[in-house]
Amino acid sequence: MKYWFARNSYKKAPIHVVNYEEMILDKLPKFSTRELYLSEEFRVLIRSTERPTEQTRIEYLSLFSHSHFFIPEIFKDLKKVVVLDDDVVVQRDLSFLWKLDMGDKVNGAVEFCGVRLGQMRNLLGKTKYDPKSCAWMSGVNVINLDNWRRHKVTENYLLLLKQVKKKDEVSLREAAFSLSLLSFQNLIYPLDGRSTLSGLGYDYGIDPEVAQSSAALHYDGNMKPWLELGILDYKNYWRRFLTREDRFMDECNVNP
């Protein structure tokens, strides 16, 4: 990562590459490496109980993993961060996110009302929640760390984590689904949907004009643009940012 940023210019932006895993293990030794992951993606199958004959609907939700909940602990001097997933392509200036007045909210995220919490009651346990509340997406998120600390989001997350009975890797990764949604109850600041367009890793029906006008594109789903099975119509948005002449690209499993 350090070599990559040293070889590529980003308009004189200061770049600081850190080993996040090493920092967490150093400052929070009670947590093991198995609890540290990137954003988690979940495939949600929704079947209507009122219309059982209707076809099951499949949606992808990309949510925070356990690692995200340590950001305020690691970067104690910061008041705000913008978090980008590694399958996001930035097409426009995102500096406007830095200027948002989020009030008392913690997590600026694009809401996804195609899935509501009440539809996932069998996954969310007995913790109280608003069944009409929309799910939200990771990808591009604005985090107000001052509000995070004031609302004790990490402490509440750890209390919910204690309720997870199994602590093996699979169970912990599955638990990220409910823990992410419940930890940010009433703390989501809805971002304009035009700021980030999701679904480019599974949805064949995205309007090209919408994709071109979006500030950022999120390739959530299993058809990532660098894979051979990536959706061909959406690869161009990612491909135009490739630096193919860089020798490091030869070592990547890229199918442009």
Automatic annotation (TrEMBL):
One of its GO terms (biological process) is cell wall organization. GO terms for cellular component: Golgi membrane. It is an enzyme of class 2 (transferase). It is a single-pass type II membrane protein. Its main location: Golgi. Pathway: Glycan metabolism; pectin biosynthesis. The keyword Iron does not apply. It is found in: Golgi apparatus membrane. It comes from the Eukaryota. Keywords: Cell wall biogenesis/degradation, Glycosyltransferase, Golgi apparatus, Transferase. Its EC number is 2.4.1.-. One of its GO terms (molecular function) is polygalacturonate 4-alpha-galacturonosyltransferase activity. InterPro entries: GAUT, Glyco_trans_8, Nucleotide-diphossugar_trans. Pfam families: Glyco_transf_8. Belongs to the glycosyltransferase 8 family. This is Hexosyltransferase. It comes from Aegilops tauschii subsp. strangulata (Goatgrass).
